[in-house]
């Protein structure tokens, strides 16, 4: 039998079929053996595990959130982007699934070798272009009629958007994506073998009244060096990076240049609100420290040293006599 759990009604129906002769135990055994045979399409090899697909989904869900913020700021309108699906399919199947005339941005992602694709539906692309040019964002599908100026505007927009991909992938690997070319006809793409497995991340995007899809296509050969890093164990573990020696020196240098208030506290005094209200110029305040007692020297609000008052070159000064351990036992009242 299959691994599925049968309900009580299904169990009763099977027992009834056997008892009435409608189905024999031998037929059930043959059916069970038949179900163990599963068809496998070698042209559609699954190169990524479910665990790795889940990791890719999490990465690109973060990418979708970053893209939403980026495009909303650039287009100055409300943009909503979310991950619709993450699938592994042959490259040929991906090419057949996208329109004959669309916008395909080809990126390199050093240090990984190979290219990844960002396919933008013409409706979405022209809506973005219309908003960038001061329009209302009306949809269009004339991707083959892009002028050189329009192409340059869109390539700049999409190339800067991939800075967000760098941030989304930063927990796995530091990449430096840059745009190499833009194509409008997918039939001209000869990046990899048609049967090569690719991961296609599809995004739903809504811009005002326009909507469409953005697809990210990543060949398996590109991700192959970092496939082990896509496991849950790697994803969940702390990925804190130790600072380099140069970073440590820079941090130490900046800390040494930081300014802190240093206060030599002569003493404290207590009085009532009524006495405070009647204070006048020339009144004397009695402090809680004698003239022969050491002063408390605070760094920020923390007592750090004991010192004695003095004078250097006609300027008031204080000489440090001792260090207060653990902030001392000064009364902060």
From TrEMBL:
It is found in: Bacterial flagellum basal body; Cell membrane. GO terms for cellular component: bacterial-type flagellum basal body; plasma membrane. The keyword Membrane applies. Keywords: Bacterial flagellum, Cell membrane, Cell projection, Chemotaxis, Cilium, Flagellar rotation, Flagellum, Membrane. CDD domains: FliM. GO terms for biological process: bacterial-type flagellum-dependent swarming motility; positive chemotaxis. Its main location: other. Residues 254-324 form the Flagellar motor switch protein FliN-like C-terminal domain. Coiled coil: none annotated. Belongs to the FliM family. NCBIfam families: fliM_switch. This is Flagellar motor switch protein FliM. It comes from Savagea serpentis.
């Amino acid at each position: 039998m299959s691994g599925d759990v049968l309900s009580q009604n299904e169990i009763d129906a099977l027992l009834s079929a056997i008892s009435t002769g409608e189905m024999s135990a031998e037929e059930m055994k043959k059916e069970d053996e038949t179900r163990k045979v599963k068809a496998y399409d070698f042209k559609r090899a699954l190169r990524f595990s479910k665990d790795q697909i889940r990791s890719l989904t999490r990465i690109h869900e973060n990418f979708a959130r970053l893209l939403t913020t980026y495009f909303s700021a650039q287009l100055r309108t409300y943009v909503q982007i979310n991950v619709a699906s993450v699938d592994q399919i042959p490259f040929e199947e991906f090419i057949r699934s996208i329109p004959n005339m669309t916008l395909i941005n080809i990126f390199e992602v050093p240090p990984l070798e190979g290219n990844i694709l960002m396919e933008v539906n013409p409706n979405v692309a022209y809506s973005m272009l219309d908003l960038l040019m001061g329009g209302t964002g009306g949809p269009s599908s004339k991707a083959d009629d892009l002028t050189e100026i329009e192409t340059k505007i869109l390539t700049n927009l999409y190339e800067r958007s991939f800075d967000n991909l760098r941030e989304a992938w930063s927990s796995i690997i530091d990449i430096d994506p840059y745009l190499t070319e833009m194509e409008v006809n997918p039939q001209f793409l000869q990046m990899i073998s048609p049967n090569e497995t690719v991961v296609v991340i599809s995004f739903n995007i809504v811009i005002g009244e326009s909507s469409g899809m953005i697809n990210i296509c990543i060949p398996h050969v590109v991700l192959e060096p970092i496939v082990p890093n896509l496991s849950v164990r790697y994803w969940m573990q702390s990925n804190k990076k130790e600072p380099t020696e140069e970073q440590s020196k820079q941090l130490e240098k900046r800390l040494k240049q930081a300014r802190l208030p240093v206060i030599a506290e002569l003493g404290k005094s207590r009085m009532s609100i009524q006495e405070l209200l009647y204070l006048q110029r020339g009144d004397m305040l009695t402090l809680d420290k004698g003239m022969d007692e050491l002063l408390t020297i605070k760094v920020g609000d923390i007592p750090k040293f004991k010192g004695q008052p003095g004078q250097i070159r006609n300027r008031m000064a204080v000489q440090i006599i001792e260090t207060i351990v653990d902030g001392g036992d000064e009364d902060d009242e």
